[in-house]
Amino acid sequence: MEETKVFRWLLDVEPLWPAPVGGSQSAQSTAHWATGTAAQHALGLLADGERARALRFYRPSDAKLSLGSNLLKHRAIANTCRVPWSEAVVSEGANKKPCYKPLVPSSKSLEFNVSHHGSLVALVGCPGESVKLGVDIVKMNWEKDYTTVMKDGFEAWANVYEMVFSAREIKDIAGFVPPIRGNQQDEIRAKLRHFYAHWCLKEAYVKMTGEALLASWLKDLEFRNVQVPLPASQMHASAQIGGDWGQTCGGVEIWFYGKRVTDVQLEIQAFREEYMIATSSSSVEMALSVFKELDVERDVYPLQEG
């Protein structure tokens, strides 16, 4: 029998569903974008409420993330629960976390979580309800953050997030010394990557619990020994890997109210130069599959009938 794993998908929406050529001054708006043939087809695969929410965004880039996120949810439900696309309905569970509620209670169930940032959408999922999952994508905003750090100093910049991190985490983030020293810009860039690794891991863990970054216990959830995954370019330079994927790092120590947590699986992986993706699972026994980059036509859309 094949081992059950947490499946992990990634979709880049930037090249998908191009806007029609031409138009008026509103040519960059979602309303204009949605008139395109490809966008109309994809939007037509969503439920009415999902489509309406996607079209509320002014910028097409945001609408495409919403569209891609919903398409992946439907595909995950259809694949895992063996139901037709029309029955792959996304519902809300506790804390408004998206979920699938089978029409027949004895039917197959699914746990999944979705994140999107930049132009990427990630979904992690597994059959059943016993394992809880969380995923988070971050895209570093180098120019904006670098300008702020140069103005106020890195410690002051890190202290802005004291409501999210424990005192020890803030100290680790502010005092981080890059393993490879370079010029000032390179060192600040490395410190920012270290911060974003902390942020991404914490967000994934919190999403696994069904809470949000407003959870009252955030500062009591502490990560130690956070490793920063090398971006794709540095992996290429060391001949360790090719393509867009960078290093994967685990080994994070999780502490909650001063006690070590050992029953959660947590890892983070770099993608291209500016992205990191963290996955959190409440099972240390169920393996995490490698991320699969999806082709929307081949892997996501429902098969044409007839």
TrEMBL record:
Start and end residues of each 4'-phosphopantetheinyl transferase domain: 133-225
E.C. numbers: 2.7.8.7
Taxonomic superkingdom: Eukaryota
GO BP terms in the entry: lysine biosynthetic process via aminoadipic acid
Cross-referenced SUPFAM superfamilies: 4'-phosphopantetheinyl transferase (SSF56214)
A Gene Ontology term for the protein's cellular component: cytosol
Keywords, ordered alphabetically: Transferase
Residue span, 4'-phosphopantetheinyl transferase N-terminal domain: 39-127
Top EC class, one word: transferase
GO MF term list: holo-[acyl-carrier-protein] synthase activity; magnesium ion binding
Keyword flag Transferase: yes
Protein name: holo-[acyl-carrier-protein] synthase
Native source organism of the sequence: Letharia columbiana
